[in-house]
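# nightly structure sweep
# worker-07 picked up a monomer target from the shared queue
# config: single-sequence mode, recycle default, output format = structure tokens
# input follows
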Amino acid sequence: MLQLDKKLSIKWRLAVFISFLLLLLIGSGYAGLDGMRNSNHALSTVYKNQVIPLERLRDIESLLQGDLRETVEKVLNEKISWDNGLVMVEQYQATLRLKWEEVLAGKESDSSTEERVWLDAARPLMTASNKMLVDLVAIIKAKQLDRLDDFAYDKLYPMIDDLKVKLDTFVQGRIAAIGTIYEQGQQHYYSSRTAFVATICVGILVSLIASYFLILSITAPLAQITKAMERMMQGDLSGRLEQQRQDELGILINGFNQMTSYLAELVAQIQLSGIQVSSSVTEIAATIKQQGSMANEHAATTSEIAASTTEIAATSSNLMETMKNVSRLTKNTANSAVDGHAGLSNIDQTMVRMEDATGSIVTKLSILNEKASNIAGMVKTINKVADQTNLLSLNAAIEAEKAGEYGAGFAVVATEIRRLADQTAVATFDIEQMVQDVQSAVAAGVMGIDKFAEDVRRSVMEIRQTGKQLAQVIDQVQALIPQVESINDGIEAQSLGARQISEAISQLNEAAQLTAESMRQTGSTIFQLNKAALILQDGVSRFKVEAD
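# output follows
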């Protein structure tokens, strides 16, 4: 149990304790609610199974003993008519039947043996009273006064009196049953109250015990930490707390032990550092003396450097002026190259237009050559037709010779046709020669134009190549301008830096003298530092730490 208590965190201990209190509260509330529910159920049962039936029995007794008897007396004494009496008796009959049904309906729902015995005893009374009213209704309907008188005094009134006695007996029995139920309820109340009080007492006792152990588990480690803190305040850093817990207090104890260890290590390091500071102060004092002599040498060196920087500043000024001239020439070269590049662009556009024009001429000459070829084909066709015509004229002349004098006219026609065919052949030959001359001239023109176009294209390519090279030159010159300006700026900055270096050297010379003065003041400071180290050693010597 103790080991489990050490493993549980404070949060879980508080949660368990509060959960136990909540369970105790819930259990107590549930017990109270259960008691009230049982009491309410008992009261409801008594009212439904005992009080309501008693009221119905009282109503039945009052109906028979009062209303019915009074109505019968009025009929016998002729104070009301037979018809009014019949109506009233029938109403009493219906009311009585309804009352008995309500009593029996309420009792049949109860399964207890005692109630069933009571119900069995009430059934004959219900049967007898209902039968008696049936007979009474029949007599009143018959309007027989003597028979009604005999029935009333011989049967009806004795039955009503007997029913009253039995109902009184039933009522007394029901009252006794109610008393028994009340006593049982009281006993149940006392038992529930005793159990509730016992539960509360046990819960309070367990809560007190749990609270004691919970508080003890928190205060005991805190007391150990408090004592350890008091020892630490007195300078004792050698103590450590035992830690076997895994809760928040265990983490706190572990942190306290680590803090004590870190503090002890820190004090030990401070003690060691005090000794080292003392030895270091002595070494620093010797070093400062050496630095004093070096400061004097440093002052002489700075004087020589000042003269050199003055010469560098003058040289930088001359170089800066030269670079400004170079920058102007570079800008002029770039502007000229840009103008030349624009001229080449115009020439390139003109050559491109010439190339397009030669292409158009070549296209048109090709069309002309094609048309000449078509004409040559047509001439050949005409020549073939002329040959066929000449052959036909020869055949016609032969046929005319065969015909004799009858073919003389046809021979003349054939001769003319042959002459025309010969002329056509001569003309077509001339045309064919001219077409061939045209085709030769066109072919020569096309070849010349193609050569000219090729020369134009080659010139365009050369101009474009020259333009590209000139553009590269322009780009390189323009790229060179910022570099020249940058060099110019750098030289100007170098000149300015040389002047600043010269001024800085002068200041450095003054600083060297101040350094010598500072060395003397540092010697005084070293003496005070040595004194402070001794005070620090004396202060940390009162702490007690574990020996390594």
